[in-house]
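Pipeline run #58 for the internal structure catalog. This entry was flagged by the ingest filter as a single-chain record with no existing model, so it goes straight to prediction. Upstream metadata was stripped on purpose; only the residue string is passed forward. Reviewer on rotation: M.T. Logging verbosity set to normal.
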Amino acid sequence: MTALFPRNALFLIAGPCQLEDDDLNLRVAERLARLAERVPGGIVFKASFDKANRSNPGAMRGPGIERGLEALALVRRESGLPVLTDVHLPEQCAPVAEAVDALQIPAFLCRQTDLLEAAGATGRPVNVKKGQWMHPDGMRGAVQKVRRASRGVERLSPPPGDQVAVTERGTFFGYGDLVVDMRGFTRLREACDAPVIFDATHSVQQPGRGEGGASGGLREYIPTLAAAAVAAGADGLFMETHPDPDHAPSDGPNMIPLDQLDALVARMVRLWEAARA
């Protein structure tokens, strides 16, 4: 089985924050499929069928699980890319796993035992995002829950073919901004013995500080933070992208414009290789 989250080549998880109409989903996916040829570890398409953790009660949540899985299946079929999406409830894991290549546990849910175990039990690769309040070593238990469910035994060291990754997005120190401690990548890897991903776009998110109570963000800092994370040891990058982020239904202020993604990723590939030469 080809690793979706390799440790020996930079990989990218990318896509719009939430699924939109098929034309936009495929437009992004086709661009990513072309870019994947220049990313050594490959690209996984990501989009959410439900944004179930919005601060604003009027926020758009996405198409829902039934329509969302149909949209993800179309992206997978037409682009040839593996696809990943979030799950929020244990009962979502099995049906979602039938339609996608990997599951993702949102940061706010990274300690939910039933959800972690249900995701692990599907046998699909699982990316667990670190909670904004957790220290890196605290993610050991989350990874162990996924592995225990997927293998039927409690273990920390990954067995052959293990496909659990952990994602750093920063920690809240104060109100409204995340701060990324670059020591965290080494600490996460040592604690979890798993590939470590940097969520470059959510790290600049400012929840509730956008127009009308939506999430704000400072996308101009994404390249700097991504470069620092790659140099500090991140194995992969997570970057949400959109053709017109200023009019996206969610997280627009912290998404990379699609036409800027190729140059940024090319720079990250060169930096990843230089940092490990």
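catalog note: The mean pLDDT is 90.
catalog note: The CA atoms of residues 152 and 187 lie 26 Å apart.
status: ready for reviewer M.T.
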